[in-house]
Task: inverse folding
């Protein structure tokens, strides 16, 4: 936690949320009551901010200051508004390349993916507000600073993103071992969004069934799958190979 900016105090946290600060996680003291605390909880639910309810002692270890039962971890990166970001991209580019990450939870994997996305010219990375790795100093270090240059948007539900992209004539391709076909027959020269799943479970079943296409990488050895950041790199560079050709 020492690597991340902290905001503490119920009113200060409310003001941070209302001013659209990018909050990685919120820690609230168990059992607190009061109108101001209830207002904070209502705002947190509305904005879909990840929250943990913890004992008073835990908050005391996070900060020695008067926290009043609320400590927020602020992201060093400003997240973009998804619809405004996509509108600008779609107006600017004929064949955008977008990356959706379905609950990738490891900060170093996230950083490595951001770095590769930057090298591959990805126009935007979209992640869900809940269940995703936060952007920490480790993320930024692993990304080689690319976290400050690649536009990243947080959304409440990736399903809504898929529907938006499909309505905008962007094909949505999922990377999954469950696919029948490999990556290579897919045409990546058209407007494309690639979906990468979590390290443990892959793309969630409810999201998977909404996608236009799915594809897998051929595995020749005994290990059943690649690390998600490595697999992501292969998918992105197949898209780049096709677009350069």
Result:
């Amino acid at each position: 936690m020492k690597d991340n900016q902290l905001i503490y105090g119920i009113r200060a946290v409310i003001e941070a949320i209302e001013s659209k600060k990018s909050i990685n996680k919120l820690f609230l003291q168990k059992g607190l009551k009061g109108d101001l605390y209830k207002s904070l909880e209502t705002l947190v639910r509305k904005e879909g901010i990840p929250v943990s309810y913890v004992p008073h002692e835990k908050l005391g270890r996070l900060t020695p200051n008067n926290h009043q039962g609320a400590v927020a971890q602020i992201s060093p990166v400003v997240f973009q508004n998804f619809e405004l970001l996509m509108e600008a991209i779609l107006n600017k580019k004929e064949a955008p390349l977008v990356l959706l990450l379905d609950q990738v939870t490891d900060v170093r994997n996230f950083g490595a993916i951001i770095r590769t996305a930057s090298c591959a010219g990805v126009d935007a990375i979209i992640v869900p507000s809940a269940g995703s790795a936060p952007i920490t100093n480790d993320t930024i270090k692993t990304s080689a600073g690319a976290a400050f240059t690649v536009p990243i948007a947080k959304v409440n539900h990736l399903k809504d993103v898929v529907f938006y992209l499909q309505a905008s004539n962007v094909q949505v391709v999922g990377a999954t071992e469950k696919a029948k076909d490999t990556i290579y027959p897919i045409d990546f020269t058209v407007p494309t969004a690639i979906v990468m799943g979590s390290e443990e479970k892959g793309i969630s079943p409810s999201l998977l069934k909404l996608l236009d296409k799915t594809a897998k990488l051929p595995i020749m050895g005994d290990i059943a799958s690649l690390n998600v950041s490595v697999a992501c790199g292969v998918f992105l560079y197949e898209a780049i190979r096709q677009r350069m050709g």
Remarks:
- The domain at 5-74 is CATH 3.30.1330.30 (60s Ribosomal Protein L30; Chain: A;).
- The CA atoms of residues 100 and 195 lie 5 Å apart.
- The first strand starts at residue 5 and ends at 8.
